[in-house]
Protein backbone atom coordinates (compact mmCIF):
# COMPACT_ATOMS: atom_id res chain seq x y z
CA UNK A 1 0.00 0.00 0.00
CA UNK A 2 1.30 3.43 -0.90
CA UNK A 3 1.61 6.04 1.82
CA UNK A 4 -0.45 9.18 1.26
CA UNK A 5 0.76 12.72 2.25
CA UNK A 6 -1.44 14.64 4.65
CA UNK A 7 -1.40 18.20 6.04
CA UNK A 8 0.11 16.85 9.26
CA UNK A 9 3.29 15.74 7.43
CA UNK A 10 4.06 18.81 5.26
CA UNK A 11 3.05 21.56 7.72
CA UNK A 12 6.30 21.34 9.78
CA UNK A 13 8.39 21.79 6.59
CA UNK A 14 6.48 24.95 5.73
CA UNK A 15 7.05 26.31 9.22
CA UNK A 16 10.78 25.50 9.08
CA UNK A 17 11.08 27.23 5.70
CA UNK A 18 9.32 30.35 6.92
CA UNK A 19 11.55 30.41 10.01
CA UNK A 20 14.74 30.18 7.91
CA UNK A 21 13.55 32.98 5.64
CA UNK A 22 12.83 35.17 8.65
CA UNK A 23 16.32 34.51 10.05
CA UNK A 24 17.95 35.36 6.70
CA UNK A 25 15.90 38.55 6.37
CA UNK A 26 16.79 39.54 9.94
CA UNK A 27 20.51 38.96 9.30
CA UNK A 28 20.33 41.01 6.09
CA UNK A 29 18.58 43.85 7.93
CA UNK A 30 21.22 43.75 10.69
CA UNK A 31 23.98 43.91 8.08
CA UNK A 32 22.35 46.93 6.44
CA UNK A 33 21.96 48.62 9.81
CA UNK A 34 25.60 47.88 10.63
CA UNK A 35 26.77 49.37 7.33
CA UNK A 36 24.57 52.39 7.86
CA UNK A 37 25.93 52.79 11.38
CA UNK A 38 29.50 52.61 10.07
CA UNK A 39 28.74 55.25 7.45
CA UNK A 40 27.14 57.49 10.08
CA UNK A 41 30.12 57.05 12.36
CA UNK A 42 32.49 58.08 9.54
CA UNK A 43 30.35 61.14 8.81
CA UNK A 44 30.25 62.07 12.50
CA UNK A 45 34.01 61.71 12.77
CA UNK A 46 34.48 63.94 9.73
CA UNK A 47 32.04 66.49 11.18
CA UNK A 48 33.86 66.41 14.50
CA UNK A 49 37.13 67.13 12.72
CA UNK A 50 35.58 70.03 10.83
CA UNK A 51 34.10 71.44 14.06
CA UNK A 52 37.51 71.14 15.71
CA UNK A 53 39.09 73.03 12.82
CA UNK A 54 36.42 75.73 13.02
CA UNK A 55 36.98 76.10 16.75
CA UNK A 56 40.70 76.40 16.16
CA UNK A 57 40.15 79.05 13.49
CA UNK A 58 37.73 80.98 15.72
CA UNK A 59 40.14 80.84 18.65
CA UNK A 60 42.76 82.42 16.42
CA UNK A 61 40.35 85.06 15.23
CA UNK A 62 40.32 83.59 11.73
CA UNK A 63 37.50 81.86 9.89
CA UNK A 64 38.50 80.36 6.56
CA UNK A 65 35.94 80.42 3.79
CA UNK A 66 36.57 77.80 1.14
CA UNK A 67 35.56 79.52 -2.06
CA UNK A 68 37.42 81.23 -4.86
CA UNK A 69 36.00 84.69 -4.29
CA UNK A 70 37.19 84.67 -0.68
CA UNK A 71 40.57 83.31 -1.69
CA UNK A 72 41.09 86.18 -4.10
CA UNK A 73 40.70 88.64 -1.23
CA UNK A 74 43.30 86.89 0.94
CA UNK A 75 46.97 87.93 0.71
CA UNK A 76 49.16 85.16 -0.72
CA UNK A 77 52.45 84.39 1.03
CA UNK A 78 55.56 84.89 -1.08
CA UNK A 79 56.30 81.16 -1.15
CA UNK A 80 53.01 80.57 -3.03
CA UNK A 81 53.42 83.36 -5.59
CA UNK A 82 54.70 81.15 -8.41
CA UNK A 83 51.93 78.61 -7.78
CA UNK A 84 49.38 81.43 -7.74
CA UNK A 85 50.72 82.73 -11.06
CA UNK A 86 50.06 79.28 -12.57
CA UNK A 87 46.40 79.48 -11.52
CA UNK A 88 46.05 82.73 -13.50
CA UNK A 89 47.04 81.09 -16.79
CA UNK A 90 44.12 80.94 -19.31
CA UNK A 91 43.97 77.14 -19.49
CA UNK A 92 44.58 76.41 -15.79
CA UNK A 93 42.30 73.77 -14.29
CA UNK A 94 42.30 71.77 -11.09
CA UNK A 95 41.77 68.03 -11.18
CA UNK A 96 43.33 64.95 -12.81
CA UNK A 97 46.24 62.85 -11.52
CA UNK A 98 50.00 63.19 -11.78
CA UNK A 99 51.35 59.72 -12.62
CA UNK A 100 55.07 58.90 -12.46
CA UNK A 101 57.15 55.73 -12.22
CA UNK A 102 59.79 54.45 -9.83
CA UNK A 103 62.37 52.03 -11.21
CA UNK A 104 62.59 50.00 -8.04
CA UNK A 105 60.57 48.66 -5.13
CA UNK A 106 60.55 50.87 -2.05
CA UNK A 107 61.46 49.34 1.28
CA UNK A 108 59.72 51.95 3.46
CA UNK A 109 58.24 55.45 3.22
CA UNK A 110 58.33 56.07 6.98
CA UNK A 111 60.29 59.28 7.70
CA UNK A 112 63.78 59.06 9.22
CA UNK A 113 64.25 55.32 8.73
CA UNK A 114 63.93 55.56 4.93
CA UNK A 115 67.28 56.15 3.24
CA UNK A 116 66.69 56.70 -0.46
CA UNK A 117 65.59 59.46 -2.82
CA UNK A 118 62.44 57.57 -3.81
CA UNK A 119 60.97 57.68 -0.30
CA UNK A 120 62.12 61.27 0.10
CA UNK A 121 60.21 62.15 -3.07
CA UNK A 122 57.00 60.73 -1.60
CA UNK A 123 57.52 62.38 1.79
CA UNK A 124 58.03 65.81 0.19
CA UNK A 125 54.34 65.89 -0.76
CA UNK A 126 53.23 65.02 2.79
CA UNK A 127 55.70 66.64 5.21
CA UNK A 128 56.52 70.34 5.36
CA UNK A 129 59.25 72.49 6.86
CA UNK A 130 59.34 75.95 8.37
CA UNK A 131 60.96 77.62 5.37
CA UNK A 132 61.55 76.90 1.69
CA UNK A 133 64.10 78.14 -0.87
CA UNK A 134 62.86 80.39 -3.69
CA UNK A 135 63.67 78.73 -7.05
CA UNK A 136 64.32 82.11 -8.72
CA UNK A 137 66.34 83.99 -6.11
CA UNK A 138 67.55 81.02 -3.99
CA UNK A 139 66.59 83.07 -0.93
CA UNK A 140 64.69 81.51 1.99
CA UNK A 141 60.94 82.14 2.28
CA UNK A 142 58.48 81.27 5.03
CA UNK A 143 56.32 78.15 4.62
CA UNK A 144 55.01 76.93 7.99
CA UNK A 145 56.78 79.93 9.49
CA UNK A 146 55.59 83.43 8.63
CA UNK A 147 58.71 85.17 10.01
CA UNK A 148 61.98 84.51 11.86
CA UNK A 149 64.84 86.30 13.60
CA UNK A 150 68.52 85.35 13.98
CA UNK A 151 70.49 86.63 16.98
CA UNK A 152 73.58 88.78 16.41
CA UNK A 153 75.90 85.89 17.29
CA UNK A 154 73.97 83.47 15.08
CA UNK A 155 73.32 81.05 17.94
CA UNK A 156 69.58 81.63 18.41
CA UNK A 157 66.93 81.47 15.68
CA UNK A 158 63.28 82.14 16.51
CA UNK A 159 60.44 81.25 14.15
CA UNK A 160 56.87 82.56 14.32
CA UNK A 161 54.44 80.00 12.88
CA UNK A 162 51.29 80.60 10.90
CA UNK A 163 48.25 80.03 13.09
CA UNK A 164 45.97 78.50 10.46
CA UNK A 165 47.82 75.22 9.84
CA UNK A 166 46.57 71.74 10.60
CA UNK A 167 47.79 68.26 9.78
CA UNK A 168 45.80 66.23 7.27
CA UNK A 169 43.78 64.62 10.10
CA UNK A 170 42.59 68.02 11.30
CA UNK A 171 44.80 68.42 14.39
CA UNK A 172 46.35 71.93 14.52
CA UNK A 173 50.10 72.25 13.98
CA UNK A 174 51.85 74.20 16.73
CA UNK A 175 55.33 74.86 18.08
CA UNK A 176 54.94 71.75 20.25
CA UNK A 177 55.05 69.62 17.09
CA UNK A 178 58.29 71.29 15.97
CA UNK A 179 59.91 70.69 19.35
CA UNK A 180 58.64 67.11 19.40
CA UNK A 181 60.17 66.45 15.97
CA UNK A 182 63.59 67.47 17.25
CA UNK A 183 63.33 65.39 20.43
CA UNK A 184 61.95 62.39 18.53
CA UNK A 185 64.94 62.43 16.17
CA UNK A 186 67.42 62.86 19.05
CA UNK A 187 66.04 59.79 20.86
CA UNK A 188 68.75 57.14 20.50
CA UNK A 189 66.24 54.31 20.20
CA UNK A 190 64.81 55.88 17.02
CA UNK A 191 66.68 54.79 13.91
CA UNK A 192 67.72 58.23 12.68
CA UNK A 193 71.55 58.39 12.88
CA UNK A 194 72.07 60.67 9.87
CA UNK A 195 69.54 63.23 11.10
CA UNK A 196 70.97 63.10 14.64
CA UNK A 197 74.44 63.78 13.23
CA UNK A 198 73.27 67.09 11.77
CA UNK A 199 70.96 68.11 14.61
CA UNK A 200 73.75 67.53 17.11
CA UNK A 201 74.74 71.14 16.36
CA UNK A 202 71.59 72.22 18.22
CA UNK A 203 71.73 72.66 21.99
CA UNK A 204 68.01 73.13 22.65
CA UNK A 205 64.64 73.65 20.98
CA UNK A 206 62.29 75.71 23.12
CA UNK A 207 58.56 76.38 22.79
CA UNK A 208 58.12 80.10 23.55
CA UNK A 209 54.35 80.02 22.98
CA UNK A 210 51.99 77.86 20.88
CA UNK A 211 53.13 79.59 17.69
CA UNK A 212 56.76 80.49 18.38
CA UNK A 213 59.69 78.07 18.44
CA UNK A 214 63.32 78.82 19.31
CA UNK A 215 66.44 76.93 18.19
CA UNK A 216 69.59 77.40 20.26
CA UNK A 217 72.87 76.27 18.69
CA UNK A 218 75.96 75.05 20.55
CA UNK A 219 78.29 77.01 18.27
CA UNK A 220 78.10 79.02 15.05
CA UNK A 221 77.12 76.90 12.04
CA UNK A 222 77.20 78.10 8.44
CA UNK A 223 73.89 76.36 7.64
CA UNK A 224 72.09 77.06 10.92
CA UNK A 225 69.03 78.64 9.29
CA UNK A 226 68.81 75.85 6.72
CA UNK A 227 69.20 73.15 9.38
CA UNK A 228 66.48 74.53 11.67
CA UNK A 229 64.16 75.78 8.96
CA UNK A 230 64.32 72.64 6.81
CA UNK A 231 63.28 70.28 9.59
CA UNK A 232 60.28 68.30 8.31
CA UNK A 233 57.67 68.72 11.05
CA UNK A 234 56.12 65.51 12.40
CA UNK A 235 52.74 65.53 14.20
CA UNK A 236 53.32 64.84 17.89
CA UNK A 237 49.95 63.15 18.45
CA UNK A 238 50.68 60.60 15.69
CA UNK A 239 54.34 59.73 16.28
CA UNK A 240 54.70 60.20 20.06
CA UNK A 241 53.31 56.73 20.95
CA UNK A 242 56.26 55.18 19.11
CA UNK A 243 58.63 56.54 21.74
CA UNK A 244 57.23 53.73 23.90
CA UNK A 245 57.69 51.18 21.11
CA UNK A 246 60.65 52.43 19.03
CA UNK A 247 61.31 49.06 17.44
CA UNK A 248 57.83 49.11 15.93
CA UNK A 249 58.64 52.48 14.38
CA UNK A 250 62.07 51.36 13.18
CA UNK A 251 60.58 48.35 11.42
CA UNK A 252 57.56 50.15 10.00
CA UNK A 253 56.88 50.54 6.28
CA UNK A 254 54.31 53.29 5.92
CA UNK A 255 53.86 55.58 8.93
CA UNK A 256 53.44 58.88 7.14
CA UNK A 257 51.30 61.81 8.27
CA UNK A 258 51.96 65.50 7.77
CA UNK A 259 50.58 68.93 6.94
CA UNK A 260 51.42 68.91 3.23
CA UNK A 261 49.10 69.15 0.22
CA UNK A 262 48.80 65.36 -0.11
CA UNK A 263 48.32 62.42 2.22
CA UNK A 264 48.11 58.65 2.34
CA UNK A 265 44.54 57.38 2.40
CA UNK A 266 45.55 55.64 5.61
CA UNK A 267 48.73 57.02 7.22
CA UNK A 268 49.57 53.74 8.97
CA UNK A 269 48.92 50.87 6.60
CA UNK A 270 51.04 51.30 3.45
CA UNK A 271 53.38 48.37 2.76
CA UNK A 272 55.71 47.49 -0.14
CA UNK A 273 53.31 44.64 -0.98
CA UNK A 274 50.90 47.24 -2.35
CA UNK A 275 53.36 47.90 -5.17
CA UNK A 276 52.38 51.41 -6.21
CA UNK A 277 52.52 54.45 -3.96
CA UNK A 278 49.44 56.65 -4.09
CA UNK A 279 48.75 59.96 -2.39
CA UNK A 280 45.39 61.74 -2.38
CA UNK A 281 44.60 65.41 -2.05
CA UNK A 282 44.64 66.74 1.51
CA UNK A 283 41.26 68.52 1.54
CA UNK A 284 42.27 70.29 4.75
CA UNK A 285 45.42 71.75 3.23
CA UNK A 286 46.12 75.11 4.76
CA UNK A 287 48.24 76.50 1.89
CA UNK A 288 47.28 79.75 0.16
CA UNK A 289 47.23 77.95 -3.21
CA UNK A 290 46.01 74.34 -3.24
CA UNK A 291 47.70 72.04 -5.79
CA UNK A 292 45.94 71.18 -9.03
CA UNK A 293 46.13 67.40 -9.01
CA UNK A 294 43.67 65.25 -7.10
CA UNK A 295 46.17 62.41 -6.76
CA UNK A 296 49.88 61.69 -7.06
CA UNK A 297 50.64 58.14 -8.16
CA UNK A 298 53.97 56.36 -8.58
CA UNK A 299 53.89 53.05 -10.43
CA UNK A 300 56.67 50.58 -9.68
CA UNK A 301 58.10 49.62 -13.09
CA UNK A 302 61.57 48.13 -12.74
CA UNK A 303 62.20 47.31 -16.39
CA UNK A 304 63.48 50.20 -18.56
CA UNK A 305 61.67 48.99 -21.68
CA UNK A 306 58.43 48.54 -19.75
CA UNK A 307 58.68 52.11 -18.42
CA UNK A 308 59.17 53.46 -21.93
CA UNK A 309 56.20 51.47 -23.24
CA UNK A 310 54.07 52.73 -20.35
CA UNK A 311 55.04 56.32 -21.18
CA UNK A 312 54.45 55.77 -24.89
CA UNK A 313 50.94 54.52 -24.08
CA UNK A 314 50.20 57.58 -21.97
CA UNK A 315 49.99 55.71 -18.66
CA UNK A 316 52.77 57.74 -16.99
CA UNK A 317 53.44 61.45 -17.48
CA UNK A 318 57.25 61.54 -17.73
CA UNK A 319 60.09 59.34 -18.88
CA UNK A 320 63.78 59.75 -18.03
CA UNK A 321 65.63 58.36 -21.04
CA UNK A 322 68.82 56.36 -21.04
CA UNK A 323 71.60 57.90 -23.15
CA UNK A 324 71.66 54.84 -25.44
CA UNK A 325 68.02 55.45 -26.46
CA UNK A 326 67.81 59.23 -26.20
CA UNK A 327 68.69 60.23 -29.76
CA UNK A 328 66.39 57.54 -31.15
CA UNK A 329 63.52 58.86 -29.06
CA UNK A 330 64.18 62.39 -30.29
CA UNK A 331 63.71 61.04 -33.83
CA UNK A 332 60.59 59.09 -32.85
CA UNK A 333 57.62 60.99 -34.29
CA UNK A 334 55.09 59.42 -31.93
CA UNK A 335 57.16 60.27 -28.84
CA UNK A 336 57.95 63.82 -29.93
CA UNK A 337 54.33 64.51 -30.92
CA UNK A 338 53.21 63.85 -27.35
CA UNK A 339 56.24 65.15 -25.46
CA UNK A 340 58.06 68.15 -24.12
CA UNK A 341 61.80 67.43 -24.23
CA UNK A 342 64.30 68.64 -21.58
CA UNK A 343 68.04 68.02 -21.81
CA UNK A 344 69.94 69.75 -19.03
CA UNK A 345 72.53 69.49 -16.28
CA UNK A 346 70.63 70.17 -13.03
CA UNK A 347 72.07 73.19 -11.18
CA UNK A 348 72.39 71.02 -8.07
CA UNK A 349 73.30 67.80 -9.90
CA UNK A 350 74.40 64.94 -7.68
CA UNK A 351 77.31 62.64 -8.47
CA UNK A 352 77.91 58.92 -8.88
CA UNK A 353 80.83 57.11 -7.29
CA UNK A 354 82.43 53.82 -6.28
CA UNK A 355 82.83 53.55 -2.51
CA UNK A 356 85.71 51.40 -1.21
CA UNK A 357 84.84 49.74 2.10
CA UNK A 358 87.84 50.14 4.42
CA UNK A 359 86.60 48.09 7.36
CA UNK A 360 84.59 44.88 7.30
CA UNK A 361 83.70 42.91 10.39
CA UNK A 362 85.99 45.10 12.50
CA UNK A 363 89.05 44.33 10.35
CA UNK A 364 90.78 46.63 7.83
CA UNK A 365 90.29 45.65 4.21
CA UNK A 366 92.78 46.08 1.38
CA UNK A 367 90.99 49.32 0.55
CA UNK A 368 92.17 50.82 3.85
CA UNK A 369 95.47 51.42 1.98
CA UNK A 370 95.34 54.78 0.18
CA UNK A 371 97.63 53.46 -2.56
CA UNK A 372 95.11 50.76 -3.43
CA UNK A 373 92.28 53.30 -3.68
CA UNK A 374 94.40 55.56 -5.87
CA UNK A 375 95.28 52.59 -8.10
CA UNK A 376 91.60 51.72 -8.50
CA UNK A 377 90.84 55.31 -9.51
CA UNK A 378 93.63 55.27 -12.12
CA UNK A 379 92.12 52.04 -13.48
CA UNK A 380 88.61 53.54 -13.65
CA UNK A 381 88.51 55.17 -17.07
CA UNK A 382 85.78 57.74 -16.41
CA UNK A 383 86.17 59.42 -19.80
CA UNK A 384 85.59 56.11 -21.56
CA UNK A 385 82.58 55.35 -19.34
CA UNK A 386 81.09 58.74 -20.24
CA UNK A 387 81.82 58.20 -23.94
CA UNK A 388 80.85 54.52 -24.35
CA UNK A 389 78.09 54.05 -21.77
CA UNK A 390 76.59 57.52 -21.29
CA UNK A 391 77.35 58.77 -24.83
CA UNK A 392 78.72 62.10 -23.64
CA UNK A 393 75.66 63.09 -21.59
CA UNK A 394 77.73 63.53 -18.42
CA UNK A 395 80.81 65.28 -17.05
CA UNK A 396 83.58 63.87 -14.81
CA UNK A 397 83.16 64.42 -11.06
CA UNK A 398 86.32 65.41 -9.22
CA UNK A 399 84.86 65.50 -5.72
CA UNK A 400 81.50 65.99 -3.94
CA UNK A 401 81.69 69.63 -5.05
CA UNK A 402 80.36 70.67 -8.44
CA UNK A 403 82.94 72.08 -10.86
CA UNK A 404 81.02 75.39 -10.81
CA UNK A 405 80.79 75.55 -7.00
CA UNK A 406 82.70 78.09 -4.92
CA UNK A 407 83.77 75.12 -2.78
CA UNK A 408 85.73 73.60 -5.67
CA UNK A 409 89.49 74.16 -6.09
CA UNK A 410 89.87 75.08 -9.77
CA UNK A 411 93.46 73.75 -9.76
CA UNK A 412 92.24 70.16 -9.39
CA UNK A 413 91.50 68.13 -12.49
CA UNK A 414 89.95 64.66 -12.87
CA UNK A 415 92.14 61.58 -12.53
CA UNK A 416 93.01 60.19 -15.97
CA UNK A 417 93.18 56.49 -16.81
CA UNK A 418 96.79 55.35 -16.30
CA UNK A 419 97.48 51.61 -16.25
CA UNK A 420 101.20 52.03 -15.52
CA UNK A 421 100.60 54.25 -12.47
CA UNK A 422 98.00 51.80 -11.20
CA UNK A 423 100.36 48.84 -11.54
CA UNK A 424 103.16 50.77 -9.81
CA UNK A 425 100.90 51.63 -6.86
CA UNK A 426 99.71 48.03 -6.56
CA UNK A 427 103.32 46.82 -6.58
CA UNK A 428 104.26 49.41 -3.95
CA UNK A 429 101.39 48.11 -1.79
CA UNK A 430 102.77 44.57 -2.05
CA UNK A 431 100.70 43.10 -4.88
CA UNK A 432 102.23 40.95 -7.62
CA UNK A 433 101.23 37.98 -9.77
CA UNK A 434 103.08 35.36 -7.77
CA UNK A 435 101.66 32.25 -9.43
CA UNK A 436 101.28 33.38 -13.02
CA UNK A 437 97.47 33.09 -13.10
CA UNK A 438 96.97 36.68 -14.23
CA UNK A 439 95.65 37.87 -10.85
CA UNK A 440 97.89 39.78 -8.46
CA UNK A 441 98.25 38.49 -4.89
CA UNK A 442 99.33 40.18 -1.67
CA UNK A 443 102.38 39.06 0.27
CA UNK A 444 100.31 36.41 2.06
CA UNK A 445 99.29 34.95 -1.30
CA UNK A 446 95.69 36.22 -1.17
CA UNK A 447 94.43 37.16 -4.65
CA UNK A 448 93.13 40.67 -5.28
CA UNK A 449 89.50 39.71 -5.82
CA UNK A 450 86.44 41.67 -4.73
CA UNK A 451 82.73 42.06 -5.40
CA UNK A 452 81.35 45.32 -6.76
CA UNK A 453 77.75 45.75 -5.59
CA UNK A 454 75.34 47.60 -7.87
CA UNK A 455 71.61 48.03 -8.43
CA UNK A 456 70.52 45.16 -10.64
CA UNK A 457 67.70 46.96 -12.50
CA UNK A 458 69.91 49.74 -13.89
CA UNK A 459 71.11 48.67 -17.34
CA UNK A 460 73.58 51.54 -17.74
CA UNK A 461 75.23 50.72 -14.42
CA UNK A 462 75.44 47.08 -15.48
CA UNK A 463 77.20 48.07 -18.71
CA UNK A 464 79.60 50.28 -16.75
CA UNK A 465 80.42 47.49 -14.29
CA UNK A 466 81.18 45.04 -17.10
CA UNK A 467 83.49 47.61 -18.69
CA UNK A 468 85.25 48.14 -15.35
CA UNK A 469 85.70 44.39 -14.95
CA UNK A 470 87.79 44.33 -18.14
CA UNK A 471 89.74 47.48 -17.20
CA UNK A 472 90.61 46.17 -13.74
CA UNK A 473 91.68 42.79 -15.14
CA UNK A 474 94.44 44.55 -17.13
CA UNK A 475 96.19 45.23 -13.82
CA UNK A 476 95.54 41.73 -12.46
CA UNK A 477 92.58 42.80 -10.29
CA UNK A 478 89.63 40.42 -10.37
CA UNK A 479 86.33 42.23 -9.90
CA UNK A 480 83.16 40.16 -9.57
CA UNK A 481 79.95 42.03 -10.56
CA UNK A 482 77.44 41.65 -7.72
CA UNK A 483 73.94 42.88 -8.69
CA UNK A 484 71.37 43.28 -5.91
CA UNK A 485 67.77 44.39 -5.47
CA UNK A 486 67.38 47.90 -4.09
CA UNK A 487 66.01 47.05 -0.61
CA UNK A 488 68.64 44.33 -0.15
CA UNK A 489 71.41 46.67 -1.25
CA UNK A 490 70.31 49.36 1.21
CA UNK A 491 70.21 46.84 4.03
CA UNK A 492 73.73 45.58 3.26
CA UNK A 493 74.91 49.17 2.99
CA UNK A 494 73.68 49.90 6.50
CA UNK A 495 75.39 46.76 7.77
CA UNK A 496 78.61 47.66 5.88
CA UNK A 497 78.36 44.20 4.36
CA UNK A 498 80.06 44.80 1.00
CA UNK A 499 83.51 45.08 -0.59
CA UNK A 500 82.83 48.02 -2.90
CA UNK A 501 79.62 49.64 -4.09
CA UNK A 502 78.58 52.05 -6.83
CA UNK A 503 75.83 54.52 -6.03
CA UNK A 504 75.06 58.22 -6.23
CA UNK A 505 74.46 61.13 -3.88
CA UNK A 506 72.13 64.05 -4.45
CA UNK A 507 73.64 67.49 -4.01
CA UNK A 508 72.76 71.03 -2.94
CA UNK A 509 73.80 74.62 -3.36
CA UNK A 510 76.58 74.14 -0.79
CA UNK A 511 77.65 70.64 0.20
CA UNK A 512 78.45 69.73 3.80
CA UNK A 513 81.03 66.90 3.90
CA UNK A 514 80.34 65.98 7.52
CA UNK A 515 77.81 63.19 7.14
CA UNK A 516 79.64 61.26 4.42
CA UNK A 517 83.31 61.72 5.27
CA UNK A 518 83.78 62.74 8.93
CA UNK A 519 85.31 60.00 11.08
CA UNK A 520 82.57 60.36 13.69
CA UNK A 521 80.04 59.19 11.12
CA UNK A 522 81.77 55.85 10.47
CA UNK A 523 79.09 54.27 12.65
CA UNK A 524 76.56 51.50 12.13
CA UNK A 525 73.87 52.81 9.78
CA UNK A 526 75.68 56.14 9.37
CA UNK A 527 76.36 57.59 5.92
CA UNK A 528 80.13 57.15 6.23
CA UNK A 529 79.48 53.47 5.51
CA UNK A 530 82.94 52.97 3.97
CA UNK A 531 84.56 53.62 7.40
CA UNK A 532 86.88 56.29 5.99
CA UNK A 533 88.83 58.23 8.63
CA UNK A 534 91.24 61.16 8.32
CA UNK A 535 91.79 63.39 11.38
CA UNK A 536 93.13 66.24 9.25
CA UNK A 537 89.98 66.22 7.13
CA UNK A 538 87.85 66.06 10.29
CA UNK A 539 89.45 69.26 11.52
CA UNK A 540 88.85 71.09 8.26
CA UNK A 541 85.22 69.96 8.14
CA UNK A 542 84.65 71.07 11.73
CA UNK A 543 86.26 74.48 11.08
CA UNK A 544 84.35 75.02 7.84
CA UNK A 545 81.02 74.20 9.46
CA UNK A 546 81.52 76.73 12.26
CA UNK A 547 82.77 79.46 9.92
CA UNK A 548 79.81 81.66 9.01
CA UNK A 549 81.83 84.09 6.86
CA UNK A 550 81.69 82.64 3.33
CA UNK A 551 84.96 84.27 2.24
CA UNK A 552 86.77 82.44 5.05
CA UNK A 553 84.79 79.20 4.71
CA UNK A 554 85.42 78.49 1.03
CA UNK A 555 89.23 78.11 1.39
CA UNK A 556 88.59 75.54 4.14
CA UNK A 557 86.31 73.53 1.86
CA UNK A 558 88.94 73.68 -0.88
CA UNK A 559 91.58 72.31 1.48
CA UNK A 560 89.18 69.53 2.46
CA UNK A 561 88.61 68.78 -1.23
CA UNK A 562 92.37 68.45 -1.77
CA UNK A 563 92.54 65.77 0.94
CA UNK A 564 89.66 63.84 -0.58
CA UNK A 565 91.35 64.15 -3.96
CA UNK A 566 94.50 62.53 -2.57
CA UNK A 567 92.80 59.93 -0.37
CA UNK A 568 90.17 58.79 -2.90
CA UNK A 569 87.79 57.23 -0.34
CA UNK A 570 85.43 57.25 -3.30
CA UNK A 571 86.38 56.98 -6.93
CA UNK A 572 84.30 59.92 -8.10
CA UNK A 573 82.66 59.07 -11.41
CA UNK A 574 80.38 61.65 -13.04
CA UNK A 575 77.50 64.07 -12.95
CA UNK A 576 74.86 63.11 -15.48
CA UNK A 577 72.58 65.22 -17.61
CA UNK A 578 68.84 64.77 -17.27
CA UNK A 579 67.27 63.53 -20.50
CA UNK A 580 63.59 63.92 -19.82
CA UNK A 581 60.39 63.58 -21.83
CA UNK A 582 57.23 65.05 -20.27
CA UNK A 583 53.74 64.51 -21.65
CA UNK A 584 52.36 67.66 -23.26
CA UNK A 585 49.19 67.29 -21.19
CA UNK A 586 51.22 68.55 -18.21
CA UNK A 587 51.44 72.34 -18.48
CA UNK A 588 53.65 75.06 -17.01
CA UNK A 589 56.85 72.96 -16.91
CA UNK A 590 59.75 75.42 -16.54
CA UNK A 591 63.44 75.59 -15.63
CA UNK A 592 64.57 77.43 -12.51
CA UNK A 593 67.82 77.90 -10.62
CA UNK A 594 66.95 74.73 -8.69
CA UNK A 595 66.22 72.75 -11.86
CA UNK A 596 62.99 71.71 -13.55
CA UNK A 597 59.85 72.66 -11.62
CA UNK A 598 58.12 69.35 -12.46
CA UNK A 599 56.60 68.18 -9.19
CA UNK A 600 58.15 71.02 -7.20
CA UNK A 601 56.26 72.32 -4.18
CA UNK A 602 54.22 74.46 -3.89
CA UNK A 603 53.02 72.76 -7.06
CA UNK A 604 53.02 74.79 -10.29
CA UNK A 605 52.02 72.11 -12.84
CA UNK A 606 48.50 71.28 -14.00
CA UNK A 607 46.52 69.63 -16.80
CA UNK A 608 43.96 71.73 -18.74
CA UNK A 609 40.39 70.49 -18.41
CA UNK A 610 40.16 69.30 -22.01
CA UNK A 611 43.19 67.02 -21.55
CA UNK A 612 42.29 65.53 -18.17
CA UNK A 613 41.63 61.80 -18.14
CA UNK A 614 41.44 60.71 -14.48
CA UNK A 615 38.51 61.26 -12.18
CA UNK A 616 38.52 61.75 -8.43
Keywords:
about 625 residues, alpha+beta, Dipeptide-binding Protein, domain 1, Dipeptide-binding Protein, domain 3, 5-stranded mixed sheet, 4-stranded mixed sheet, globular, disordered N terminus
Explained architecture:
It is a single chain. The chain has 20 helices and 24 strands. It is of the alpha+beta class. The chain has three domains: 9-63; 114-264, Dipeptide-binding Protein, domain 1 (Alpha-Beta Complex), CATH 3.90.76; 351-576, Dipeptide-binding Protein, domain 3 (Roll). The strands form eight sheets. The protein has a five-stranded mixed beta sheet. Strands 1-10-9-8 form a four-stranded mixed beta sheet, with no helix packed on it. α13 packs antiparallel against α15 (419-428) and α19 packs antiparallel against α20 (550-567). The radius of gyration is 29 Å and the shape is globular. The relative contact order is 0.13. Mean pLDDT is 90; it is low at 1-9 and 30-72.
